[in-house]
Amino acid sequence: MPSGEIAMPQHPIIQRSNLHAQRRPPASRQRRKLLRIAAAAALTSLAGTGLSLPRKALATQGQGSPRRLVLVELMGANDGLNTLVPWRHDLYRELRPRLALGRDDVVDLDADNGLHAAMTPLMEAWDHGEFAWVQGLGYPSPNRSHFTSIALWETGGDGQRQSRNGWMTEALETGLPHAIEHAHGISMVADMGLFESTGGRYLSIRDSLSLMATPTIGNDTMPLDALSDNPLLDSVSTHVAATDELIGDIAARLEKTPRVEPLDNDQLGAQLADVLHLIRAGIDTPVYRVRLDGFDTHERQWDRHWRQLARVAVPLAAFREALIADGEWDNTIIMSYSEFGRRARENLSGGTDHGTAAPHFVIGGRVRGGLHSEAPDLEKLEDDDLVYTTDYRSLYDRMLTDWLGIAEHRFRQYHDARLDDLVG
Description:
Alkaline Phosphatase, subunit A
């Protein structure tokens, strides 16, 4: 059983250890990497035969709201039942004789639920009413394939139907109440995921030390110097030229802004540091996407899940502190998502298998904290699995409508009054 304290990160303005300092590239190398962002200007989802060209509406600086949404993918499917834990429930312990958490493993949130103790660094946000959980998220006809289900979550589909484009791209491109100067969305990992689109402007940054240096055309990625024999050369060249001034501005702003050291010596901490760097540089984009892998806990889950949740909580707590110090916390919401939850009953390998419904967190200065909607009923399982209580697209509806101010979008049909007070 895990023991010991989870160390809170130092206040990130940000001075870290020599270990972190050694990860910082020399100034000339950093400058070259920043300038390589120009290659990503080939709007990374040029699907089919059509090119995603720049939108004229992206020209004016300073007209838009500073609100932003940071989406955190918990890759592999987080076990919601051992994250937001009904630890007092007899049936919970019956379903999980080895994996059930007890009083010493959770922090009480209310009379029925505790938060896994590995997420203690985020309890300050909870105590300030800035940390919410939306319970029982899922969709009809659930799919338990990692690839298929994450594609559904990222396109806003369900087990019966699915869009080709990312769930928010159309709304971002046509519905924002203000112009966007730089990008509609920035992914801090190589693939575009929920930013797949035939229009709009989306950028991808591969990792914490380099920026994506290749345009994506359909499903193929190639270096720019390989385009000379490509029949789309003229169109791509025209497109890159049209965005050159914009990308040059992004590179110049990043170069003038001190680079942020990783908020934690881990994958998510590095990505969130890059997001903070972009925010401090004044890069205008409403949505960022980050990812933490390792949540597919089929075996030896006890220790693994503890470490995974700490890998989430520590850098997010540091990110929150930095945004508070910068005066940006009230402009930011952080929301998690994952392909599915995990089964209610533990397996024979000390882990859990692919499931359906799960809770997800929403954190921010204007979030109304607490538990929203209803948790699945442990006495009404289907094939040892939780039955969803809340369509995940109702959460998308709230983020687009209440947070980003987009009045018309395809998720209005999923409006759920139980989430009306999620965002203040």
